[in-house]
Amino acid sequence: MALSGMRGLSVFISDVRNCQNKEQERLRVDKELGNVRTRFKNEKGLSPYEKKKYVWKMLYIYMLGYDVDFGHMEAVSLISAPKYPEKQVGYIVTACLLNENHDFLRLAINTVRNDIIGRNETFQCLALTLVGNIGGREFAESLAADVQKLLISSSCRPLVRKKAALCLLRLYRKNPDVVNVDGWADRMAQLLDERDLGVLTSSMSLLVALVSNNHEAYWSCLPKCVKTLERLARNQDIPQEYTYYGIPSPWLQVKTMRALQYFPTVEDPNTRRSLFEVLQRILMGTDVVKNVNKNNASHAVLFEALALVMHLDAEKEMMSQCVALLGKFIAVREPNIRYLGLENMTRMLMVTDVQDIIKRHQAQIITSLKDPDISIRRRALDLLYGMCDVSNAKDIVEELLQYLSSADFAMREELSLKAAILAEKFAPDLSWYVDVILQLIDKAGDFVSDDIWFRVVQFVTNNEDLQSYAAAKAREYLNKPAIHETMVKVSAYILGEYGHLLARRPGYSPKELFTIIHEKHPTVSTSTIPILLSSYAKILMHTQPPEPELQNQIWTIFNKYESCIDVEIQQRAAEYFALSRKGASLMDILAEMPKFPERQSALIRKAEDAEVDTAEQSAIKLRAQQQMSTALVVTDQRPPNGMPAQPSIGPLSLVKVPSETVDSQNPGDQGLTHPNGVVYKEDPQPPSQDIIGDLLGTLSIEGPPGAVAQSPQSATYEAEGAPSAADAAALVPVGEESGSVQPIGNINERFYALCLKDSGVLYEDPNIQIGIKAEWRAHQGRLVLFLGNKNTASLGSVQALILPPTHLKMELSLVPETIPPRAQVQCPLEVMNLRPSRDVAVLDFSYKFGPTMVNVKLRLPAVLNKFLQPITVSPEEFFPQWRSLSGPPLKLQEVVRGVRPLPLPEMANLFNTYRLTVCPGLDPNPNNLVASTTFYSETTRAMLCLVRIETDPADRTQLRMTVASGDPTLTFELKEFIKEQLVSIPTAPQRPQGPAAPPPPVAQITAPPPAASQDPGALLAGLL
Amino acid sequence: EKAIRELSGVILSRGPKLCNFVDWKGHKVVYKRYASLYFCICIDEEDNELEALEVIHHFVEILDRYFGSVCELDLIFNFHKAYYILDELLIAGELQESSKRTIAKLISAQDNLVEVAKEEASSLSNIIAQATK
Fold this sequence. Notes:
Structural class of chain A: alpha+beta
Family (chain B): Belongs to the adaptor complexes small subunit family.
InterPro entries (chain B): AP1_sigma, AP_complex_ssu, AP_mu_sigma_su, Clathrin_sm-chain_CS, Longin-like_dom_sf
CATH architecture of the largest domain in chain A: Alpha Horseshoe
Shape of chain A: globular
Subunit structure (chain B): Adaptor protein complex 1 (AP-1) is a heterotetramer composed of two large adaptins (gamma-type subunit and beta-type subunit), a medium adaptin (mu-type subunit) and a small adaptin (sigma-type subunit).
Number of helices of chain B: 5
GO molecular function (chain B): clathrin adaptor activity
Mean pLDDT of chain A: 77
Shape of chain B: elongated
CATH superfamily of the largest domain in chain A: Leucine-rich Repeat Variant
Oligomer: heterodimer
Subcellular location (chain B): Cytoplasmic vesicle, Clathrin-coated vesicle membrane; Golgi apparatus
Radius of gyration of chain B: 20 Å
Number of domains of chain A: 4
CATH topology of the largest domain in chain A: Leucine-rich Repeat Variant
C-alpha cells in the first residue's frame, strides 16, 4: 500500500476509515476541523509542510461530503508560495474547493497571471490548469489574452500549449463575449498542422467550441480537419503511444468529426470525396471484437462517423448502409451498443427518406421496450415515439399501452403522455382515440395529467358521431368496481352531456346513469364533486318527463352541498338547485356544450416545450433547425378527422377558457351583455331577462357589477382551464371592468424607458406599483418584479401570467395570491433568448382590491437590444467581416424615409444607448455612421452584427441603412428594430410629455394605445 | 455533493449487465465499475458516450501504471496524486493528452520536483542543525 508521504494525513485517513459508523466519522472529522482551524489561526507558527498537510486534510474532509467553510484563504495563499510543492498543493486544492464565483479567487488573479506570463513552465502549467478548471468571468477578462499568446507561442513546449488550448476553451465557452477570437481562424488552421498530438487533441476541442459558435469564420479549417481524419483513420500515421488498443487516437478522431459537423456542408468536391472515403472505411471496417475497450473505442469512432454521415446527408446508399448498421446494433448483446443504436436511430429519423427503412426494425425496437435496462427502454420509447405515423400508430400505441401496466413508475408519466399524443396525432379513427385515452386513464390514472382528459372531452364535444360511442364506453368503465378518479371525472362529464343519447338502451335510463355515477361519489375528492354536480344537473334536465323520485334524490344532494365549505361546490349546488326548479328554462341554461374552438393540443405543445427545454447548441439540433426536421413538421398536423388545419391560436390561448376565447372574438354572438356589464354565455338562445334577475336573486348577488366580479368563479375557472369551467350557469366576468382604477403615468412611456435602462417602474396605479429590475448576461436575463401594495389593506387574487413570444423562454417564480398591506413581494423571472426576434413578452397581471378586479396587460422590457453587448471593432476586423457578409440574406440594405430628424451626434448617442457601439473613423464620410454589436441568443450564440447608416445632410428625414450579421433572421430583425427606433424614436424622456403624443403607429413594435390593451385579442394581434 | 448522493442511488442500484449510461436531469452520466469503485463522468446529451467511457478507462490505466495495479486504498491515501494525474489528463472536462507515456513522464517530473525541494529543505535544516550545535 502506497502511503501519501504525509504521516499526519495518512493517520487521519486511517482513523476516518476505521470509524464504525457515520456518527463516529462525524466526530472524528469535527475534531480534525477544530484542530485545523486552531492551527490556521496561529498561522505564523506553521511551516510550509504543515500548511500543506492541513490543506490536504481539508480537501479530504470536503471530499467526504462535509462543509468546509474556512481555510480557503490558506489554500489560496499557498498559490503564491515560491516553491513548487506548496504552489502545486495550493493550486489543486483551490481548484477543488472554490468555484468561479468565489471572492477569494480575485486575490489570486495577480499571482496566477504572474505564473502564466512567467518563465517557469511548471508554474505555467499549474496556473493554466487552475484557470481551465475554474473558468470565471474575471479570469477571462484578465487572462484570456495571455493564454492566447501562450497557445500560439513558438517558444512554449507542447505541455504548456495543450493546457493553454483547453484553458482558452473553458474561458471562451463560459464567456464568449470576453474572449476576443477575431482573426483566430488562421491561427486555428495553423494549430491543426501541429505534430504533437496532445496539442492537436486540445486544439481540436477548442476548434469545436469555436465553430459551434461561428462556422463561417473557420472554413479554412475544414480541409485540415479532413486531412487529420485521413491521417488517423486511413493512414494510421501516428506514434505508437497515441494508439489506444490499436486504434489511432479514437478521441482525436471523434473530436475531428464533431468539428466537421458544425459546417453546413463540404463544398469542395475533392475534400468531400476524401471525407466520404474515410467515412466509408470507418463504417465498413469496424468489427465487433472481444476486447471491451477496443470495441468501445472503435464504436465511439463509428457512431461519430454515423452522425457525420447523417449531417452531410450523404447519398442514399450510404444512408441505408448506416440504417442497416444501426439495425444490427439494436439487436446485439452488448448493452452499450444497443443503447447507442437506438439513440442514433432516433437521430436518424430527422434525415429524410429513411423512415421506411427504420420501420422495418419496429419489432426489434418494441422488444427493446422490455429490455432489462431502463436507459435502453427510454431510448426505445423515444424512438418509437419519433417513428410513429399514421401507418403504424395503432401498433405502436397498443404496445405502449400494454407496456404501461408493467412499466417502471419513473417512466409512466412520460409513457402515457407520449401515448396520448400519438393517439391524437395519428388516430386512424376517432373512436380508437377515445378507446386509447380511456384505457390510458384506466391503466395509469395517476400519471394521466388533466390535459389529457380535457383533450378527449374536446374531441367528443366537437364530433357528434363520437358522442354516443364515448358515452357507452364511459358507462362500461363505470361498471368496474374500482376506477381511478380521473376516470370518474371524464365518465361523469361525458355521461352528463351525452348519456341521454343512449337512453333507450337497457342500463342507460337517467336513473341508472345517476345511480352508477353516484356510486363513485363517496370515493372522490373535492375536485371531482363539481363535475358530478354538473352531471347530475344535466341528467335531471334530460329526464323528460321528470321523475319525482330522481329529482328528490338529486335535490337532496344539491341541498347538502349548498353549505359546502368549498365555494366552487357551494355555488354550483346553489345554482343548480335554483335552476332545476325553474323547469323549462333549465333546458336553455343546461343545454349541450357548444363546440370548442379548434386549437393546438396542449399536449403537443407540452411535448414541444420539452423539446425546446433540452435544446442545446449542438450539431444535430442546429441541423434540425436548418432543415425543419420532419419530426417537428409532423407535430403540426391535425388529427385526420376532417377538421381543417388551423394555425394554433398561439401559446397564449392555452390559459383561456375555450368559451371565453369565443366570446372575446365574437362579442355579442353567443353572449348577451347584461346592463350590469356581466356577460352570460353558453346559450344558443339568450335567456330572458327574467332568469337573469332570478339568478342574481338566488345567488344574492346584487349591487354594482363589482359584486359579481367578486364571485370566486373567475379565479377557479382560470385555474382549472377545463371544459368544465365553461359549464352551465357560469357567471364569468369578461372584460376587465377595472372601473375606477386608472394607471398612474403613461404605461407606454414607462415601457420605453425600461427598454433603455434596467430598472424602474413598469406600472403604477392607486393600489399597486410594479417595479422591475433586470440583469442581462449574454442570452439570459433575470428580471425581478417588485409588486408593492400601496394600501393599508391586502390585495387579493393576485395573478401574474407571462405570455412569452415564441423566441423567449420565460419562467416566473410563484407569485403569491395576496400581497399584505404596505408590503412588497419580489418575483424573479428568468428569461432566455432562443432566437432573434422583435416580439415582446406580455405580463398579464390582475389583482382584486375590495370588490374591484383590476387586470392589466403590460409589455415586458425583454426586448431585442437587451441581448446586445456593445463591442468595438477595429478597421482590420471590420472590413474583412463586412466584405465576407456579401449580400442578402446576411446583409440587408434599405432606404428608410420618415426618419425623425436628428443631428448626427444625437443619432450616435441613440445607437450607443441601444448598445450598438458607434465606431468613429471607420467610415471616411462624416455623414455616415458605423456601429457594431454582439447579439446573443441560444441558437445564434454570440454573433457579431455590423451596421452602417448613410445620412443625407440635405434631408435628415431619410437615410440608407445596411445591416449585416451571420444569421439571416438576425440581420432582418435587427434592421427592423433599428428602423423602428429611428422612425418613432420612443425615447420617452426626451419627448414632449403628455398623452396627446402617442408614438406614431409606424412600427409594429409600437403598442396599441392603452385603451386597446384591455382587449387581449387586439393586443395579441398587435404583437404577433 | 447532493448530486453524488443522488447519482449513487441511481447507479449503484443498476445491475451488472446493463449499459454504462444513465439519463440524469437532461444530461447523461457515463459510469464504469472497477471492483468496488465506480468512476462517473457527466456529459451533455449530444456528446459521444463511448468516448467518455474510454476516457474513464484510460484514466484507470494510467493510475494503474503509476501505482502498479491500483486499488481503492491507493486512491484513498493518495487522493492528491489522483488529482495530479487527472489534471494531466483532463482540463475543462476535455481530454488533454491521450498518451500514457507522456502523462507518466510529466507526473514523475512533478514528483521529482517535489523530492528535490524536500531534499533541499532537509539538507538546509541539517546545515542549520549542524551550525547550531
